[in-house]
């Protein structure tokens, strides 16, 4: 029997207990031994709930129990999760987590601690919820040099953008609905400002490129400025607007970004709708691969956490995770990255056509009759820096959205 402890009986923690109870016989078979939840750490009591007999309020009971070999950290946030995780690893207990803030910030150090002790720190649920992506990057795509990762990494914003696209509604309206449905938090900043996607692309990039990508270095733009009018243009162009987290090799360096991006129907990310997530990976030998599924929610996330418990049970004394070096990967400034842009400009297309073409060269104009006093155009490929200079010269830009090229 392998004894485990769960830190936190919130949405994911209770999901972990539910998954282990629901699928106990197949999970035990796959783990090679019976998995027993010995403790659940939470501040609260759960009177009348069968979990009550396992609830402890003191972390030291778990830390000092030599029978506990695996600890599931599903508390979220940096502290006390960081301190508890470190103490568990130092005590020789494997840890698995869904905590993207912690993995993005301290993943390199925690992986190294685990490796030194021949135990494991696994975090399949930290990116893409229930979608297997960490394990494939760690153990399946190992023959490749990964040169690009691009993902729809946030379910809440993808739900909101899908609603705006299909129902023509405004941002504030769909945010309110997402909050009512429990997808978006009361304070939605982590999702809508792109911070959540930023941490996830930092983790995926660190793992794929083998060195620490600091999330603080990643240019991050959320969806708060996307409007129903933007979707009118997108529909006219036959494109979708998606919040993407992406990182890419450019020459000998890498850049990373989170931003709303216009995506073509030929792009596999185009049809990823609602709360679903997808992660597109390009390897120099494999070519393209895409991983798709439920990126959030109690049971999909718990499914990924429990898959880590099983892996840790199977490898109690062997480190299976490729660790990324704590040496920082210096990202290049996005100003040299190249792409085309969709621009909305104020004024009359008849009067501005020549000036736009003089500044931006050959462009494709789009006019939406009901949007008076403005017009749109898509540019050719140019660097971010070149775009900024030209937009400044035009002086009448209402907004711009990047266009993804595949
Ligand atoms: N708020 C996140 C999302 C939860 O909407 O994707 C999963 O990390």
Automatic annotation (TrEMBL):
Q: Where is NADPH annotated to bind?
A: 100
Q: In which pathway does it act?
A: Amino-acid biosynthesis; L-threonine biosynthesis; L-threonine from L-aspartate: step 3/5; Amino-acid biosynthesis; L-methionine biosynthesis via de novo pathway; L-homoserine from L-aspartate: step 3/3
Q: Where does L-homoserine bind?
A: 185
Question: Which keywords does the record carry?
Answer: Amino-acid biosynthesis, Methionine biosynthesis, NADP, Oxidoreductase, Sodium, Threonine biosynthesis
Q: Name one Pfam family in it.
A: Homoserine_dh
**Residues binding NADP(+):** 7-14
Aspartate/homoserine dehydrogenase NAD-binding domain boundaries:
8-124
Reaction catalysed? L-homoserine + NADP(+) = L-aspartate 4-semialdehyde + NADPH + H(+)
EC number(s) of the enzyme? 1.1.1.3
InterPro entries registered for this protein in UniProt: Asp/hSer_DH_NAD-bd, HDH, HDH_cat, HDH_CS, NAD(P)-bd_dom_sf
Q: Which GO terms describe its biological process?
A: methionine biosynthetic process; threonine biosynthetic process
Catalytic residues per the record? 200 (proton donor)
Where does the record place the Homoserine dehydrogenase catalytic domain?
A: 132-310
Q: Which GO terms describe its molecular function?
A: homoserine dehydrogenase activity; NADP binding
Q: Kindly report, in one word, the top-level EC class recorded for this enzyme.
A: oxidoreductase
- Source taxon at top rank: Bacteria
The family line of this record is: Belongs to the homoserine dehydrogenase family.
PANTHER family linked to this entry? HOMOSERINE DEHYDROGENASE
Protein name (record) = Homoserine dehydrogenase
What is the taxonomic lineage of the source species? Bacteria, Bacillati, Bacillota, Clostridia, Lachnospirales
């Amino acid at each position: 029997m392998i004894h485990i402890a769960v830190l936190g009986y919130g949405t994911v923690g209770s999901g972990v207990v539910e998954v282990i109870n629901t699928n106990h016989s197949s999970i035990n078979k796959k783990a090679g031994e019976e998995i027993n939840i010995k403790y659940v750490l939470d501040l609260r009591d759960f009177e009348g709930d069968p979990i009550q007999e396992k609830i402890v309020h003191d972390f030291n009971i778990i830390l000092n129990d030599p029978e506990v070999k695996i600890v599931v950290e599903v508390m979220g946030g940096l502290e006390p999760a960081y301190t508890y995780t470190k103490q568990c690893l130092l005590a020789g207990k494997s840890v698995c987590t869904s905590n993207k803030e912690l993995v993005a910030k301290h993943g390199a150090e925690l992986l190294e601690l685990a490796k030194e002790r021949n135990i494991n720190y696994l975090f399949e649920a930290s990116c893409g919820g229930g979608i297997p992506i960490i394990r494939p990057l760690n153990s399946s795509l190992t023959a490749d040099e990964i040169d690009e990762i691009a993902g729809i990494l946030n379910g809440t914003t993808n739900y909101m953008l899908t609603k705006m696209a299909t129902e023509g509604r405004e941002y504030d309206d769909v945010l309110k609905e997402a909050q009512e449905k429990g997808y978006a938090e009361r304070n939605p900043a982590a999702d809508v400002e792109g911070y959540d996607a930023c941490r996830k692309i930092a983790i995926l990039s660190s793992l794929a490129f083998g060195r620490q990508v600091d999330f603080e270095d990643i240019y991050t733009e959320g969806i708060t400025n996307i409007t129903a009018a933007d979707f009118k243009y997108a529909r006219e162009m036959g494109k979708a607007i998606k919040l993407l987290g992406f990182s890419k090799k450019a020459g000998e360096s890498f850049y990373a970004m989170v931003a709303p991006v216009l995506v073509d129907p030929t792009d596999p990310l185009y049809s990823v709708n609602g709360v679903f997530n997808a992660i597109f990976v390009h390897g120099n030998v494999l070519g393209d691969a895409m991983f798709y599924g439920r990126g959030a929610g109690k049971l999909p996330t718990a499914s990924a956490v429990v898959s880590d418990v099983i892996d840790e049970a199977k490898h109690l004394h062997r480190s299976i995770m490729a660790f990324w070096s704590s040496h920082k990967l210096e990202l290049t400034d996005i100003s040299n990255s190249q792409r085309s842009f969709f621009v909305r400009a104020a004024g009359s297309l008849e009067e501005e056509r020549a000036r736009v073409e003089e500044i931006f060269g050959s462009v494709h104009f789009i006019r939406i009759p009901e949007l008076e006093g403005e017009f749109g155009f898509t540019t050719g490929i140019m660097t971010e820096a070149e775009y900024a200079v030209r937009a400044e010269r035009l002086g009448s830009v209402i907004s711009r959205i990047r266009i993804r090229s595949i």
